[in-house]
Amino acid sequence: MRVIKIGGGCLNGNGTIETIMALLAERGKGNVIVVSALKGITDFLVEGMKSALSDEAAIPGVMSRYRSRHTDVARHLIGNRQALSRTAKVLSHSFSQLERLFYGLSFTRESTPRLYDTIVSFGERTCAQLLAAAMQSRGVNAVSAMPHRIGLVTDGKFGDATADLKASAANFDEHLRPLATEDAVVFMPGFYGVGPRGDITTFGRGGSDYSAAVAAAALGAEALEIWKDVDGFMSADPRFVPESRLIPELSYEEAAELAYFGATILHPRTMEPVRLRKIPVTIRNTVNPDAEGTRIRGKSPQPGSVIKSVAFDTGIGLLNIYASGVGARMGILAQVATAMTDGGINIRSVVTSQTCISLLLSRGDLDAGRQALMSLRPRPFRRIEKVTDVALISIVGEGLSRKKGIAAQCFTAVAGCSVNVNMIAFGPSRAALYFLVREKNLRRAVVSIHSTFFSTPRCS
């Protein structure tokens, strides 16, 4: 049995979805298919909540657009009138549930984490029901298996849940495995599970990859396939480096670092469950399904330079916290970290000196992070500086920390293109070195590093 994950980028446009259905009819039997919401639907639901909060009269329009998007896909995929009527009844129940939640949100005037997670999970739920119905109309035995019914158990943390693998595996053996017969295609919504108290809890944006990895680990699948709209991981972003190459093989650690430091192909936590169970992962392109793709497993071949890829992330920023004798004052770092945690803010990285603590945060968290720190009493710092015009670059390759001269080559290449490095971190990971540059210098830095390790050195 394999677990196949289909991303929202692939579920975009009736023609593309029809191509995927044909592939699944041929290759999906006996497997579990984890699906994202149709492209753009999660954002639509988030905006729908804002509309419901501001004006109850907006809800019918929100629901009309949500229904139309899914029924339009259904009409395209399902030619049989009777099958289409049956599908409409199934989807109608889901639409009614969602509409009641929107009205409940409007009535209470409060978007709680519990309600938020429940509403945004409907994109995946409706998609799974729709695709199962479309597959049935093709004469294939297909079912949808909802995580809250088959028992994908989480720790109950809203918006950033973690799966309980042991409990989920026991539940899947009872409720999911019997559905995945040799002639059946099982569609499972990604993105969410159910907490200990029965609440819907999501894994965060892009969390359907993690859901698929959890399902593969819990079922002891022979492999996990991630179907995307790209061939796989590349040695650099082709928009910056047209000559970038497909990476045929990565280790779990290399893939995790690339996902965390900017390569958007996988959710950063996808590797956790499959690495634990030693399940191989393959990235495949839905429009080119027989292409080589990228294979991910415990170890991968190392090129002579060790470097596999140069990745970047522009969605970050810095909070520089200035105080005298930071390195010698006991407890100040703990105060800062506690304030961030209490504010629900994740610290991506931290670097300290005697006079400054630099926090690397997601750019959208900078203002909230500053506010959380300013609320500390007494304030353990002199001032806070917010820096937004930076980008994070990472070079990734297992064995990087053991290979002499890699860091020197990297920074020599960057300096040779007149790019200044703002902050460096090397050592916490055996497979990654990362540093900050000004965002205006990002393209030059990426091109210079990639050309140094993969071709002829150049700046742009």
UniProtKB/TrEMBL annotation:
<feature type="domain" description="Aspartokinase ACT">
    <location>
        <begin position="393"/>
        <end position="453"/>
    </location>
</feature>
<dbReference type="InterPro" id="IPR045865">
    <property type="entry name" value="ACT-like_dom_sf"/>
</dbReference>
<dbReference type="GO" id="GO:0004072">
    <property type="term" value="F:aspartate kinase activity"/>
</dbReference>
<dbReference type="InterPro" id="IPR036393">
    <property type="entry name" value="AceGlu_kinase-like_sf"/>
</dbReference>
<dbReference type="GO" id="GO:0009089">
    <property type="term" value="P:lysine biosynthetic process via diaminopimelate"/>
</dbReference>
<dbReference type="GO" id="GO:0009088">
    <property type="term" value="P:threonine biosynthetic process"/>
</dbReference>
<comment type="pathway">
    <text>Amino-acid biosynthesis; L-threonine biosynthesis; L-threonine from L-aspartate: step 1/5.</text>
</comment>
<keyword id="KW-0067">ATP-binding</keyword>
<dbReference type="InterPro" id="IPR054352">
    <property type="entry name" value="ACT_Aspartokinase"/>
</dbReference>
<feature type="binding site">
    <location>
        <position position="239"/>
    </location>
    <ligand>
        <name>ATP</name>
    </ligand>
</feature>
<comment type="similarity">
    <text>Belongs to the aspartokinase family.</text>
</comment>
<dbReference type="GO" id="GO:0005829">
    <property type="term" value="C:cytosol"/>
</dbReference>
<dbReference type="Pfam" id="PF22468">
    <property type="entry name" value="ACT_9"/>
</dbReference>
<feature type="binding site">
    <location>
        <position position="124"/>
    </location>
    <ligand>
        <name>substrate</name>
    </ligand>
</feature>
<comment type="pathway">
    <text>Amino-acid biosynthesis; L-lysine biosynthesis via DAP pathway; (S)-tetrahydrodipicolinate from L-aspartate: step 1/4.</text>
</comment>
<keyword id="KW-0547">Nucleotide-binding</keyword>
<keyword id="KW-0808">Transferase</keyword>
<dbReference type="GO" id="GO:0009090">
    <property type="term" value="P:homoserine biosynthetic process"/>
</dbReference>
<dbReference type="GO" id="GO:0005524">
    <property type="term" value="F:ATP binding"/>
</dbReference>
<dbReference type="Pfam" id="PF00696">
    <property type="entry name" value="AA_kinase"/>
</dbReference>
<keyword id="KW-0028">Amino-acid biosynthesis</keyword>
<keyword id="KW-0418">Kinase</keyword>
<dbReference type="InterPro" id="IPR005260">
    <property type="entry name" value="Asp_kin_monofn"/>
</dbReference>
<dbReference type="InterPro" id="IPR001341">
    <property type="entry name" value="Asp_kinase"/>
</dbReference>
<feature type="domain" description="Aspartate/glutamate/uridylate kinase">
    <location>
        <begin position="2"/>
        <end position="285"/>
    </location>
</feature>
<protein>
    <recommendedName>
        <fullName>Aspartokinase</fullName>
        <ecNumber>2.7.2.4</ecNumber>
    </recommendedName>
</protein>
<dbReference type="InterPro" id="IPR001048">
    <property type="entry name" value="Asp/Glu/Uridylate_kinase"/>
</dbReference>
